[in-house]
């Protein structure tokens, strides 16, 4: 790739992701305001359901966690989960949905999952700011450790993008992929510490939980945003390695298989 | 054809093997080197993946050969036309040149920025306004935001869609859609323009505007690759033409030569087509044409003569498919045909030449005051000219008996502009005191008037004598 390619690609990425973000709210009365309103409503709903309807506790540690805190903890997990859900699930059909770009225009197809990721990232970022504000409101202070959050989010985003490249390519050739992906992604919601802390499960099965791409970022993000602790650096390092690996694997796989797209669309 | 835009800047082809050699000749804009395309047809999309991953040589597909060993080069500033029947591989070839499709073997080298009008508006999103789509499309075509800002007004003017520019594209008429897409594609100031039939959409005024823009690009030294079924635009715009048939390049030469062979081929099917095709290939292999390929555009005498013959000839498969035979009232018209001055049957006529329209009539009743008539109509049904023997007493045949056989001949000069026409035939007479049509044939014969490179006549009938002249008065 020459530098011109990269400049050209970044122009396309910029143009198309800003368009994709606009597209979500085009025609709605409140427009982009929904990016803020949606997470606020979500927080309100969690707070109500998990404190009034089901009286669940956050792990064994009862004393520490108040009602509002409980919502914030859930919100971290669900924000990351819905980001992954959107990017991976839509990634599976993104090439088929944009077959014009494959067959009729000379277009750098690798950018399509990137555009999808950026558009979902916009929502994730806004959600996390809402969370930080909420956390500041309930605990009346903000932990300085929130500045470590980008170090946790970046490997997560790159990993999801890598996976998105792989499913984008596979989904083009194997049309049943989306039917397979939906239950797998739903399983991730329950088989990781999204709705509960990892400590509430026996130590022996922690290893399996760490196979979920969500476990490390969700756990660590809770540490830095909510508890004000430093992240578990060794976990984070391992996760970053896995993320970089997936990112390159996905990219290479996508570029290797994309020449076959035109034959099957 | 659905409309769409395809275009590329040579440098953004991240997904194709783009071959730019450093020692590449500067005067050549496009080199197509031995391109073949075999479409692989997979039963399931997943078979395509298996094919890529399978270690051995197993085949998961069926093959379809769309192009076979195509080679040519286009010099900087040249305009080349590509002709061929439907399914001859023209669009596949253009897609490979634009790199939206990869070839199975061979390679393409391109120098300069390419704008390809393959399918206008492919990148348009119907939910977004014209303005937003222009920005997005131009970005895909390789322009920066600054460049687009600078050109936006001219794009808007060219498309000429008024306030619609700020309305969603889904509210556009198909004409507006194409106009905006064309305006965007052409605004990139391409060094190489690739046009595939895109101009056949839009009204005439817009088409003229497009042609003017194409000529402007030509004057600036731009290279144009042009696919069209409109032989007149090929003759008007191109300096060279290539004839494709069945995925093979069967002839390359002057537009005049290629157009006339294309017209011979176009209406044929099966064996007849095969025959003409091998004739053309043989012609293409002759020495004269090879010298043409080496950019020696001047035609020699042999080819000139050959072309004249081609302007007037007989295409066996070219027969009227809309023939209507009226109920016979006692006579039957048969064997309607056109003969040239040497007595051969023809159905492709040359402007200005003399011909005879002849048909025979068999009578199975007796009739009085029998007259014959003919009429020429355009493809659209407009009656242009005709002739009759029934209005002149000296030509009327006073008594025709049952069992007679009469042949009638109308000599005429082919003063028609190039196009397709029909002959009607009719015979009338008095039977038991009342005058009636004994038999009529509508669209009895179809014929074509060949396109010539220099035509001054407009409309349908050529009334000009010689070449129009101009005198400077100051």
Detailed description of the structure:
- The complex is a heterodimer of chains A (265) and B (474).
- Chain A has helices at 3-25, 33-53, 67-91, 94-97, 99-103, 111-139, 149-173, 177-190, 206-209, 215-227, 233-257, 261-264.
- Chain A is mainly α.
- Chain A has one domain.
- The model of chain A has no long low-confidence stretch (mean pLDDT 86).
- Chain B is built from eleven helices and 20 strands.
- Chain B starts with 5 loop residues before the first strand and ends in a 25-residue tail after the last strand.
- With 474 residues, chain B is of the alpha+beta class.
- The A-B interface holds A 1-2, 4-5, 8-9, 11-12, 15-16, 19, 23, 26, 100-101, 103-110, 170, 172-175, 255-260, 262-264 and B 4-9, 11-16, 39-40, 42, 45-46, 48-49, 51-52, 98-102, 118-119, 122-123, 125, 127-128, 132, 135-136, 139-140, 142, 144-145.
Radius of gyration of chain A: 20 Å
Q: How many strands of chain B? A: 20
Spatial separation of the terminal alpha carbons of chain A: 26 Å
Which structural class do you get from the secondary structure elements of chain B? alpha+beta
Which class do the helix and strand fractions of chain A yield?
A: mainly alpha
- What level of helicity do the residues of chain B show? 25-40%
Number of domains as seen in the coordinates of chain B: 2
Q: What count of helical segments of chain B does DSSP give?
A: 11
What percentage of the residues of chain B does DSSP assign to strands (E)? 25-35%
Please summarize the sheet with the most strands of chain A. Answer: none
CATH topology of the largest domain in chain B, by name, is Rossmann fold
Q: Which term fits the overall shape of chain A? A: globular
The number of distinct β-strands of chain A equals: 0
Q: Strands of the largest sheet of chain B, in order across it?
A: 1-6-7-8-4-9-10
How does the SSE layout of this entry go?
The complex is a heterodimer of chains A (265) and B (474).
Chain A: H1 3-25, H2 33-53, H3 67-91, H4 94-97, H5 99-103, H6 111-139, H7 149-173, H8 177-190, H9 206-209, H10 215-227, H11 233-257, H12 261-264
Helix pairs in contact in A: 1-6, 2-3, 2-6, 3-6, 3-7, 3-8, 3-10, 6-7, 7-10, 7-11
Chain B: E1 6-8, E2 28-42, H1 45-53, E3 61-75, E4 79-84, H2 90-98, E5 105-110, E6 114-117, H3 130-140, H4 145-159, H5 174-186, E7 192-196, H6 204-219, E8 223-227, H7 231-237, E9 240-245, E10 248-253, H8 255-266, H9 270-285, H10 287-293, H11 301-311, E11 324-325, E12 331-340, E13 348-349, E14 354-363, E15 367-378, E16 383-388, E17 397-400, E18 405-413, E19 419-431, E20 434-449
Parallel strand pairs in B: 4-8, 4-9, 6-7, 7-8, 13-20
Antiparallel strand pairs in B: 1-6, 2-3, 2-5, 9-10, 11-20, 12-14, 14-18, 15-16, 15-17, 15-19, 19-20
Helix pairs in contact in B: 3-4, 3-5, 4-5, 8-9, 8-11
């Amino acid at each position: 790739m020459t530098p011109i390619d990269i400049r050209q690609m970044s122009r396309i990425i910029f143009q198309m992701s800003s368009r994709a973000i606009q597209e979500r709210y085009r025609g709605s009365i409140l427009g982009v305001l929904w990016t803020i309103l949606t997470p606020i409503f979500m927080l309100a709903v969690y707070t109500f359901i998990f404190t009034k309807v089901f009286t669940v506790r956050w792990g064994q540690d009862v004393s520490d966690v108040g009602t509002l805190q409980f919502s914030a903890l859930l919100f971290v997990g669900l924000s990351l989960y819905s980001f992954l859900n959107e990017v991976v699930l839509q990634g599976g059909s993104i090439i088929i949905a944009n077959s014009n770009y494959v067959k009729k225009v000379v277009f750098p197809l690798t950018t399509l999952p990137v555009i999808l990721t950026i558009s979902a990232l916009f929502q994730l970022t806004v959600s996390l700011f809402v969370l930080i504000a909420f956390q500041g409101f309930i605990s009346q202070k903000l932990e300085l450790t929130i500045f470590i959050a980008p170090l946790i989010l970046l490997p997560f985003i790159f990993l999801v993008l890598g996976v998105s490249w792989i499913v984008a390519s596979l989904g083009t050739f194997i049309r049943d992929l989306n039917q397979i992906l939906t239950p797998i992604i739903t399983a991730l919601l329950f088989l990781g510490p999204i709705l509960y802390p990892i400590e509430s499960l026996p130590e022996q099965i922690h290893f399996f939980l760490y196979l979920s791409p969500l476990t490390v970022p969700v756990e660590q993000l809770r540490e830095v945003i909510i508890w004000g602790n430093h992240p578990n650096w060794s976990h984070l390092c391992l996760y970053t390695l896995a993320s970089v690996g997936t990112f390159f694997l996905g990219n290479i796989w996508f570029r290797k298989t994309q020449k076959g797209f035109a034959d099957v669309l | 054809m659905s409309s769409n835009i395809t275009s590329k800047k040579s440098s953004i082809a991240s997904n194709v093997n783009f071959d730019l050699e450093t020692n590449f000749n500067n005067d050549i804009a496009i080199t197509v080197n031995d391109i073949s395309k075999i479409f692989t047809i997979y039963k399931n999309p997943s078979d395509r993946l298996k094919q890529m991953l399978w270690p051995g040589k197993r085949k998961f597909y069926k093959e379809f050969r769309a192009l076979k060993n195509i080679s040519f080069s286009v010099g900087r500033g040249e305009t080349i036309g590509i002709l061929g029947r439907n399914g001859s591989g023209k669009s596949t070839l253009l897609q490979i040149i634009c790199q939206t499709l990869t070839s199975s073997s061979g390679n393409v080298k391109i120098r300069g920025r390419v704008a390809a009008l393959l399918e206008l508006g492919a990148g348009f999103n119907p939910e977004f306004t014209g303005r937003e789509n222009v920005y997005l499309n131009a970005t895909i075509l390789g322009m920066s935001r600054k460049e687009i800002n600078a050109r936006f007004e001219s794009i808007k003017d060219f498309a000429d869609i008024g306030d619609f520019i700020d309305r969603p594209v889904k509210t556009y008429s198909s004409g507006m859609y194409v106009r905006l897409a064309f305006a965007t594609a052409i605004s990139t100031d391409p060094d190489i323009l690739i046009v595939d039939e895109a101009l056949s959409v839009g009204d005439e005024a817009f088409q003229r505007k497009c042609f003017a823009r194409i000529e402007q690009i030509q004057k600036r030294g731009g290279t144009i690759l042009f696919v069209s079924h409109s032989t007149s635009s090929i003759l008007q715009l191109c300096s060279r033409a290539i004839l494709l048939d069945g995925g093979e390049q069967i002839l390359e030469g002057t537009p005049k030569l290629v157009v006339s062979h294309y017209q011979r081929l176009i209406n044929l099917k099966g064996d007849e087509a095969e025959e003409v095709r091998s004739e053309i290939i043989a012609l293409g292999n002759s020495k004269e044409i090879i010298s043409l390929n080496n950019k020696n555009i001047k035609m020699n005498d042999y080819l000139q003569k050959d072309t004249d013959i081609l302007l007037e000839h007989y295409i066996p498969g070219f027969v009227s498919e809309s023939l209507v035979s009226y109920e016979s009232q006692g006579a039957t018209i048969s064997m309607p045909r056109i003969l040239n001055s040497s007595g051969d049957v023809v159905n492709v006529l040359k402007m200005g030449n003399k011909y005879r329209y002849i048909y025979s009539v068999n009578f199975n009743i007796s009739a009085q005051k029998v007259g014959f008539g003919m009429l020429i109509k355009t493809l659209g049904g407009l009656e242009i000219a005709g002739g009759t023997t029934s209005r002149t007493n000296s030509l009327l045949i006073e008594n025709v008996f049952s069992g007679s056989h009469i042949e009638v001949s109308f000599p005429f000069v082919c003063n028609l502009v190039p196009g397709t026409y029909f002959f009607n035939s009719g015979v009338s007479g008095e039977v038991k005191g009342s005058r009636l049509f004994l038999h009529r044939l509508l669209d009895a014969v179809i014929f074509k008037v060949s396109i010539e490179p220099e035509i001054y006549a407009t409309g349908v009938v050529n009334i000009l004598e010689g070449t129009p002249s101009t005198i400077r008065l100051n």
